[in-house]
Amino acid sequence: MAEKLTALEAILVDIHRESDRDVLRNPAGLNDTLLALISTVSVSDAAPTKSAAAVARETMARVDGEIGKLERLAATEVAAVNRSVIEREVAAASDA
């Protein structure tokens, strides 16, 4: 489960970044793509270009897909771990 969570995190953000310069050394996470897009669109006096709108749609679709994976993981594997921990705590409390 930890590996799956780490993989999801690595897609959403650059997990290897230690400084602002690391953006040049590692692939950008989806958050970097969104921040760059927002920055580009926000300084313009005109409506976003067709290519900017396409990048926004593509990036948001990828973000939505990764969030969906995270939600499914939380609903299944994380929930199973939580239930197991609660069951063990109840068993330990009843043994005491």
Question: What does this protein look like?
Answer:
The chain has 96 residues and is mainly alpha-helical. It has helices at residues 2-12, 30-42, 50-95. It is elongated, with a radius of gyration of 20 Å.
Keywords:
96 residues, elongated, 3 helices
Q: Bin the strand percentage.
A: under 5%
How many discrete structural domains? 1
How many beta-strand segments? 0
Largest β-sheet summary = none
| Secondary structure category | mainly alpha
Mean pLDDT over the residues: 85
Q: Distance between termini?
A: 31 Å
Helical content (DSSP H or I, runs of 4+):
over 70%
Low-confidence stretches: none
Kindly summarize this structure in a few lines.
The protein is mostly helical and 96 residues long. The protein is 73% helix and 0% strand.
